[in-house]
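Re: the multi-chain job from yesterday

Posting the exact lines I submitted so nobody has to dig through the queue logs.
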Amino acid sequence: GIQVEQSPPDLILQEGANSTLRCNFSDSVNNLQWFHQNPWGQLINLFYIPSGTKQNGRLSATTVATERYSLLYISSSQTTDSGVYFCAVSPSGSARQLTFGSGTQLTVLP
Amino acid sequence: GAGVSQSPSNKVTEKGKDVELRCDPISGHTALYWYRQSLGQGLEFLIYFQGNSAPDKSGLPSDRFSAERTGGSVSTLTIQRTQQEDSAVYLCASSSVAGGAYEQYFGPGTRLTVT
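And the result, structure tokens for all chains:
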């Protein structure tokens, strides 16, 4: 099956810093989503981005489908950004079930 | 509108008992998915329903796991003869298929503990 690798596995930042999270995948995809899992376990949708670039406030994401990677940018980080960030993909031609990466644990210090 | 809801939020059961977990998808979403999140295995797909088509059961870990979806809406995941390794958070997601976009939205999960 498709492989999804996220890096870095852990990231510690001071409030106000910027960061880039990476997601590499091993095959062509028809769905790519970024999620933030908050401390209560809820998966919050950040971006649906199988290709291209999107921005939402301090967050933006870029997927280069031909090179099989996606980047999530967090600018001016806040303590509320802490949590685990997951990338999830479904391979082209599949029934759209998501395969998740192992996540990036982000800690933003005040 | 309302998001995906799941019940119960927590379930503690004894090894060998059967459990039922419920998912109410977002109104109008025709696709429904079950996943589970455990410490050792991360987030993994279990089963997928799309409209009236036969479900994709390729992620179910054993024949003790089954799921149904009634009337194209509410779904129930049943685990028979629970084992300790079934302890996990069970997550339900739904998506619309309109316009070819399948963005999935997740419920809050059911935390299952098998003692």
